[in-house]
Write a structure and sequence with these properties.
112 residues; mainly alpha; Arc Repressor Mutant, subunit A; two-stranded parallel ribbon; 2 strands
Length: 112
């Protein structure tokens, strides 16, 4: 994808963003705020977005909107510091976290 197409896509995504529910916008903002090389739990993201018991909403948003809004889905883990994904998605999450120098073992346990 050339630079112009990336910029155009970003503008389109920004337009769509305003059409989302406020809670969804806040969750997306918190997911985007997780820094390179760090992780946050579904629960932490929900709490930071001002939602009690928002973990499921975070998971739903990651599942349905990660690609469209280019969310760093691999940085979101379970509260017990393990990965919530299985199969090929789990392998990809481990790979992406390791690229960011996050310490994660083959079983999906993330070190503090």
């Amino acid at each position: 994808m050339d630079d112009f197409a990336k910029i155009e896509r970003a503008f389109e995504a920004a337009d769509d963003f305003s059409q989302l529910k406020l809670e969804t916008q806040r969750i997306i903002g918190q997911i985007r705020a997780v820094p390179y090389g760090q992780v946050a739990s579904y629960k932490e993201i929900g709490n930071l977005a001002g939602l009690t018991n928002g973990s499921r909403q975070v998971a739903r948003i990651l599942h349905s909107l990660s690609e469209k809004y280019e969310l760093p889905w691999w940085r979101i883990i379970k509260s017990d510091r393990t990965l919530g994904l299985t199969g090929a998605a789990r392998v990809e999450q481990i790979r992406l976290l390791r690229l960011e120098n996050v310490s994660v073992d083959d079983l999906g346990h993330v070190a503090l």
